Amino acid sequence: MLVRNTLMEFLRKERTKRNYKEINTPILLHNNVWEISGHMQNFSHAMFFTKIDNAGFGLKPMNCPGAIITYKTGMHSYKDLPLRLAEFGMVSRNELSGVLAGLFRTRIFTQDDVHIFLTREQIEQEVTQVMELIDHFYSKVFGFDYHVELSTRPEKFMGDVKDWNKAEATLEQILKKRKMKYKVNKGDGAFYGPKIDFHIKDSLGRTWQLATVQLDFQMPEKFDLHYVDEKGQHQRPVIIHNVVYGSLERFMGILIEHYQGRFPLWLSPIQARIVSFTDRNEKYARQVEQELMKAGLRVDSDFASETVDYKVRKAQQDKVPYTIVIGDKEEKAKTLAVRGRDGKVRFGVKLSDFVAQVREEIEKKK
Question: For the whole model, what pTM was predicted?
Fold first, then answer.
């Protein structure tokens, strides 16, 4: 849970900086909703259904309708737009057992969905900002190489061809304006709109389709969404659908294999391990452990009756970023001997200096 929660909290903070509002919508919605959204006609084969008091309900395979219903709960002015609604929503899809694969393909998973309600004039700026956030995560934080595809109208689609052509042209224009290399993936768009797909390459050379930016003219029409323009007239908003991680579970699986267990410090379940040289150093070592915990670091300890070499080697095998060895010299001087993953040891490190260093590395997402 720690890696999962850390990923969620990081994305939550980045979106909060950009004025996203977090929501939480029901996992079970009346079939009327799925009829309006088009999921019943286009996606029912992958949904789970049930009846309550003789009324039909479906577990949500996507978070879109929940966000749309949230938008419909109030009146909106053009001054309110863009309205950015974010949700870590649990979705369910009736996948065939033969395609299920660990964290990579599951029937229930969590999507970091965003639905941005905006005017047509705001599309270019907003799509650009979303793409910049995705690039920040993939290139700067996780160090992924990625390529981009423009996925166009599928055979089974909803809405008017003219709207589809307009949406596809808009996304393509944005890609060209940003001078991004891309290829067109014909027929692979969502049934309600075209999308820009981000495909990352992991350390094993495999590619994964993760982030998407979808432009949707159809759902606002289906759900009769409005905003009031500067002249007091009702206008139809556009929706941008976006995920960064995609399936949070799949993203975690990719990271585990990409880093081969050597998570960067900010994501590591254990950031430092305290190792005592002898039993007589255990008391001071426990004090150090408590101080590091109070400072907000994720720490564990190894006070087993084994040699220091054995305990250090065990920490390396466990891929712990920092191993702190406490012996007589450290206890007397009230300092630390700090060993990094690179095997280099720094002696005489003050506790406060180590905490400051680790906090800086965490802040910089190293």
Answer: 0.91
